[in-house]
Amino acid sequence: MDDTQRKPLAVVTGASSGIGYELAREFAEHGYDVVVAAEDAAIETAAARLRAIDGSEVVPVQADLATEDGVEKLTSRIRETGPVSVLAVNAGVGVAGPFVETELRDHLELVDLNVREAVHLTRALLPDMVERGEGGVLFTSSIAATMPGPYQSTYNASKSFLLSFAEALRTEVADSGVTVTALMPGPTDTEFFARAGLEDTKLGQSKKDDPAEVARDGFDALMAGKDRVVAGSMKNKAQVAAAAVTPDRVTAKAHAKMSEPGSGD
Q: Which helix (H) or strand (E) holds 163?
């Protein structure tokens, strides 16, 4: 395809379902070609559904992004496809339960996916955006980033990392034409809670936001060049506002009541 006819390209990780899939759908509906990535075979089904939208070209990449080889596989495929206009770093997992009773391997895999993958992939793609003087990066953080997370200790910490990382990069590239945005959803109706083992908690049983609405909030904030957006319900916005003026020891205790195993019984 001639470059003059090429659509802008968006890359979305964790796109086989949930917020990631809905973000990819937003990009496809707004005239982007899309590279979608996830570790599970469902990424092929997601890509097939996305191709039906407005004639977008959709390239699925099945890769374990918690590994260096997986990230390299994705970046190699991206470079074959074309220059990236938008990177949506969305892939992530949770680990529920007391830190001293849960598997170390699970926590390290969380850090590899939620944190290491975000750094690796962003470092691979951001320099080209800066050199071209255009582009945007969207990190899916969470309202969990604003408070310690007992029984989700490494998850909340990883989301705090992403929020801080996004704000730092935004300042560094402020004069380059590239924007960086943090998407901060609250509890959202996705497979996350089942996969993380949170279904028996008050948090897991709480009312959840529509992932399509969360993705729309993120897309709109990215297009507007905002630094962050608290997506979903007004409850999420109120929780973030309260966390900003409440000592961590207090928010930690409140979080524990929601996330302690069995608290939903």
A: helix 153-172
Distance of CA 249 to CAs 193, 240, 254, Å?
24, 15, 9
> Which position among 141, 160, 233, 259 bears the catalytic label?
141
> What ranges do the domains of the chain cover?
3-259
Interatomic CA distance for residues 42 and 84, integer angstroms: 23
Q: Does residue 22 contact residue 215 with C-beta atoms inside 8 Å?
A: yes
Q: What is the pTM of this model?
A: 0.94
Structure-token pair, residue 191: 């497979």
Taking domain 3-259, whether its CATH number is 3.40.1190.10 is answered by no
Helix (H) or strand (E) holding 34, with range, is strand 33-38
What secondary structure letter does DSSP report for 102? Answer: S
At 10-41, the pLDDT tens digits run: 999 999 999 999 999 999 999 999 999 999 99
Residue 151 appears among annotated catalytic residues: no
> Sign of dihedral through CA atoms 130, 131, 134, 139?
negative
Catalytic choice (159, 208, 233, 259): 159
Catalytic, 141? Answer yes
Spell out a b/e string for 202-240, using b for 16 or more CB atoms within 10 Å of the CB, else e.
ebbbeebbebbbbbbbbbebbeeebebbbbbbeebbebb
Largest CA distance in the chain: 59
The Cα–Cα gap between 94 and 33 comes to 29
Nearest 5°: CA angle at 119, between 115 and 123? 170
**Residue 2, pLDDT score:** 45
Q: Which one of the listed residues 142, 155, 158, 259 is annotated catalytic?
A: 155
Residues in the chain: 265
